[in-house]
């Protein structure tokens, strides 16, 4: 038994980011061809494209603001033309707008808008662009990157939490709307994850966080990508509407 995505095409938004690049590499290693979305870092996008092509998979880079519906439609058309496919089999909504966290009283209203746009509307636009093909194909995977923060509700998290909780509601409804077409809709919720930029950090700076984690460590970016690859594969064919924390048990959804 293995995660085999041979013959599948996957779109990863925010693929040049710390987590996005590992997700893209992992899906390619499972056999998928990749559409690599970026907003600003063209150099990293080209580097990732070359890396994936060197592994024997096809790749195309697509650029644009994921908070705009026209971007999603343009990406769809570009992917079809560049990769010669009728549509995308796997969508991973990973991109999110970054901003400075502060209290509700201090947080700019524009930050709440940006989080709604990048967490909720991004997925709405991706669904409108890519799910019609999945319906015709009677199958597909729609995966969103959420966060453990959506369950924690800690101080200064309000804009991020509001956006991700809105995303959670959207995904649960979408799962019910498209399930009859054998399209699954799921979310992966990382904790505070170790990525390339963290690997040279001072040891012990995360002790306050890991003290609360049952596994007593932070997760690795590869562990998040592994969960995404599982949800993208046929091994997850009867899982939909799920919010899956990948955080060592730091938050645990209850029944």
TrEMBL record:
<keyword id="KW-0560">Oxidoreductase</keyword>
<dbReference type="GO" id="GO:0016491">
    <property type="term" value="F:oxidoreductase activity"/>
</dbReference>
<comment type="similarity">
    <text>Belongs to the short-chain dehydrogenases/reductases (SDR) family.</text>
</comment>
<dbReference type="InterPro" id="IPR036291">
    <property type="entry name" value="NAD(P)-bd_dom_sf"/>
</dbReference>
<dbReference type="InterPro" id="IPR002347">
    <property type="entry name" value="SDR_fam"/>
</dbReference>
<dbReference type="Pfam" id="PF13561">
    <property type="entry name" value="adh_short_C2"/>
</dbReference>
<protein>
    <submittedName>
        <fullName>SDR family NAD(P)-dependent oxidoreductase</fullName>
        <ecNumber>1.1.1.-</ecNumber>
    </submittedName>
</protein>
